[in-house]
Amino acid sequence: MALISRVGKRLRRIIERPGSVELTRYEALLPAVEKLEPELEELADPELTERAEKLAESLDGATAYTDNQLVEVCALGREAARRALGERAFDVQLLGTMGLLTGHVVQMDTGEGKTLAGALAAAGHAMRGRRVHVVTVNDYLARRDAEWMNPVYALLGVTVGWVEPAHSKEERKDAYYRQVTYGAVAEIGFDVLRDRLVTHVDDLVQPAPEVAIVDEADSVLVDEARVPLVMAGSIDHNDADEEVATVVRRLRLGLHYETDTDGRNAWLTSAGASVVEKSLGGIDLYGDSGSDRLAAVNVALHAHALLTRDVDYLVRDGKVQLINAARGRVAELQRWPDGLQAAVEAKEQVTATDRGEILDSITVQALLARYPEVAGMTGTAVAVAEQLREFYRLEVAVIPPNTPNVRADQPDRIFASPSQKLRAIQDEIASVHETGRPILVGTQDVAESEELADKLAKVDLPCVVLNARNDAEEAAIIAEAGKKGAVTVSTQMAGRGTDIRLGGTEGSTREEVAELGGLHVIGTARYPSSRLDGQLRGRSGRQGDPGSAIFFASLNDDLVLSNAPDIPEGIDSDSETGEITDPAAHRQINHAQRVAEGVDLEIHRNTWRYTRLIERQRAELLEHRDKVLHSALAAEGMEKAHEEKFAELKEKLDDTERLEQVCREVLLFHLDQLWSDHLAYLTDVRESIHLRALARETPLDEFHRAAIPEFHKIIPEAATRAAKTLEEAEITDDGLDLADAGLRRANTTWTYLVHDNPFDSDFEQTIKRVRSMMKMKKS
Fold first, then answer.
1. Contact partners, residue 575, CB within 8 Å, separation at least 6
2. Which residues of the chain have pLDDT under 50?
3. Annotated binding site for ATP
4. pTM (whole model) above 0.85
5. Binding-site entries
6. Angle at CA 452, nearest 5°, toward 450 and 456?
7. Largest distance between two CA atoms of the chain
């Protein structure tokens, strides 16, 4: 019977969780962990730490854990957490810890204790002599989790730190040389970019990467995988064409320009081109003389037609601030490619930001690929299991909840129009609110959250709004969303990092709220990803709490119009309410969501195809740069190239170390400048490469043909330029006058993330534009 039970359990897991890791090995170790508890409880704190240090000695340098070592790590971690936090780790948390220690992405439901599981895994890796980065989605969580888990680490003899934007170089270096370092993915990436530009070994802040444990792994590894982190140096003010912005502002959809159904592209009609040409002084946009203005018109049109205030961005404190669509927050330090950023600033008539020369960049996916060992944790990993396997070679381990989930997920309610849907949502909120149950409403964007809040206020249903305008208060807002009678409206719940506890933070009315039915979650539309739907639903039913969730949708929602606009005929709605019960409507919405997920995956794959070559080139160049940074390679090369001038320089500088550093700075300057030029060249190539498809050439192959020869010129060209600098620069008592020789690095540098490039470069979009231009020419 036991064998049949195990087989049945395994089959059920395979059916319910396709692509997930088998947990039998880990489950079999749990009794041994529990057996150690009485023995460890008898130890004084110093004795517990000593025991952990002895385990670390046995683990030092090990490439994998034995079963006994996994048991010991988990038993020590459970006891440390019990003493430090007053929390005895559940068996499922230890399963999560073992999954992370063995290099998997573990799926654990919201409220199941991922933070502690991740900390115990980080401590285990640290005991093995590995330096660990716990990668979070924002700076708040990095600091909160590091401070929260610090007493646990201390009992296990492990040091911990964190990095945040306000930290100095010395504070960063100290944090990175702790055994465990917490940091937002962007902050860690920015430090990687800064280290790539140093000219002295002592200025490096990061040691070599070893282990990454990624929190909200699906968000970081999938949603943000293609987002480039950028290091830039100032060139000049980023002035947009104000005249063009004024002209484009007057254009009307359908008359002067058209857009495609997915909202990725906009183009002028013949009437629009005529208006623009006349308004700009009678120029020919499609002639040689008007090519510069055409680029400005295209980018201004994109800003005008395809980017919406309070949906794609906010205007706050006189600045355009992008909104992260997956999280509903302001995307700090994020911007569009410079031309579009300036166009949106011109559209909103705010002060333009400085334009920068890109010194280096790295995608989030490439950043994580630097780590020899990667693991992750999230509440929704199964939905992206194939992508995690394809892009990272990671498998998903699904951890069962500590207490069975009893949340009631109700079928979607579908309406003919958004206005009818909104009325139904208001009615739903009112009827549930009368019972006293707390309500969490998930909206699509800032504008929708504020519109709903205004309508609720008019019928005396006050609510708390959580969106990009007040994301600084998010933890406090979420913490109280489970209070009796609370109504909370949020743009997105992914990666918020705070549990919604029934009864609020004090929990005084928890039992009463539970008896009423717990938290009721309402989605105002289906998201472009089923994972985001799941993350919103998952806020209810935490740790076996009662709760419910329902999504409202319309056949005219953006999701459907952008991805599946061809609605089957014969779908009828209720004449009074507009509600649709026809199963075909449900199928249409599910189809639209699958199409959206497919498009997103293809964009990810396409970005990955192009960036793989760039990352290989970057790795090769960095290997050479590292040799220059840590050796006398630069001095040796310059001596061979120009013995007489080198001897003169050597005579002026009596310290050999000073001589090597001067030569190093010269060669590194040219290497860095040539790499920056190479990135700019590749950007230009990629923007035009899809036109090659018109000649039946493969764009990716053409990109490689253009990129590879140019890259191989960089290292020899840098050596040539360094020798020329030595030949021409004036030698003083301090060495070479580098500034006079034109070797001036950017006096101001900054870091930011580039928003997913909105200029679609697919072959189909190229065809659309070419056809549009041909029509205008014919007319």
1. none
2. 1-5, 7-8, 11-18, 237, 756-779
3. 93, 111-115, 499
4. no
5. 93, 111-115, 499
6. 115
7. 94
